Amino acid sequence: MDIDDLLKEAQNGDKKAESRLFEILCLRFTKLANYNSMKNKQDIEDIVQKALITVASEYKKMDFQTGFLKWADRIMTLKLWNHFTKRRRWKKIQIPLSDYQHEINAPSTDEDQELRRMILRCFEMVVGSEKLYANVLALSYEGYKAPEISQKMSITTNYCYYLLSIARAKIEECLEKGKVE
Amino acid sequence: MKECNDPSIGQLLHAFELGVLTEKERESFELHLAQCEYCFEKFMQFQEVTLQIRAGEEAREIVSDMAFPSAPSILSRIRAWLLELIPRLKSPKLLLAQMILILAIYAGFTNWLGTGVQQTLYLMPERGSVGNILMLDDGGKAEIIFDMSKANRQKQYLIGVFSPDDEIVISNVDYSLNTEFRGRIIGKVRIPVNVLMPGNYILRVSNENAAYDSALYEYEFMVK
Hints:
The complex is a heterodimer of chains A (181) and B (224).
Chain A: H1 3-11, H2 15-35, H3 41-58, H4 68-86, H5 109-129, H6 131-141, H7 146-153, H8 157-177
Chain B: H1 7-10, H2 13-18, H3 23-35, H4 37-45, H5 47-55, H6 57-66, H7 74-85, H8 92-113, E1 121-123, E2 132-136, E3 141-147, E4 157-162, E5 168-170, E6 175-179, E7 185-192, E8 199-207, E9 215-223
Antiparallel strand pairs in B: 1-9, 2-3, 3-7, 4-5, 4-8, 6-7, 8-9
């Protein structure tokens, strides 16, 4: 039985299929954690549990246009991201290339340096032209969340999100074209 | 996929990347990311940038040079320097002379810093002909005076600043109502223009219970 059949049966309430489906996911998520160099067994178990809980609470309502496994892997990827950033372990999350296209081939040291320089240059340009973005960032470095940042800056939270999305678009544009309009 | 399947949620992407969403928002945004091909791709491709912004020393330095909260202002640097200097001065005459000099420098700087607001606010005459800008103070606030001749002073009003695409930018603006000598009622608000990006905005006055839906007055203004 392939994964799609298993999913359909689990969605229709077959407990055995559901249990098998989650066994597969558990293994898959653990592999993804290992692939991203997680060593601590307890941490891996915690994150896998969190991802499985999210999948369990959502998968029956979903219409999987992009594929169930792809969706489930993304849930796990985002749990990993959250885990790493909360612990200030700053690393990129990767999904194995055999499944999707997200893995970025490790750039050479020179390319890496050049990319970093370019990111910084663009970041500096955008922060320089969008002082409010700098203010939001400075408050985020101090650990404030968007509602508190908005309150401190006397703006609405929606406007704060809008500012961030504009700044992000400008950084993207700069990385693409080498300048900010 | 070329577009986000829900742009109003997709707009939160950078807030998610920077870790400024609340726990509840983060959880629901994760579900969006997992479903939205477009946003997930953008998130994955931007990881290097996100990590540099969040963790890179250089990025933090750039921000502290440009932003207000964590960067010590010139004034506070002078203040810190003075506090360090004062205990070293032993002679009373010298101390007095130094104090006078210090106060002069301090006053000069305060005055100089007070003129540092860059944003300029213009009321567009075709919409709010009565409105005018009195001043921009050194906290970056602009005072706007506008016609409220239909106002009832016993009532409460709701005043907000909206972007041209009708997104609320500043809500519940504090206001005061004054009666001019000819009996006309005028409203007065102080808008923190230093938090607004350059562009056109609308100051909207509604009845308190109308929640901005039906505006009594609208004044368009521009931040340059």
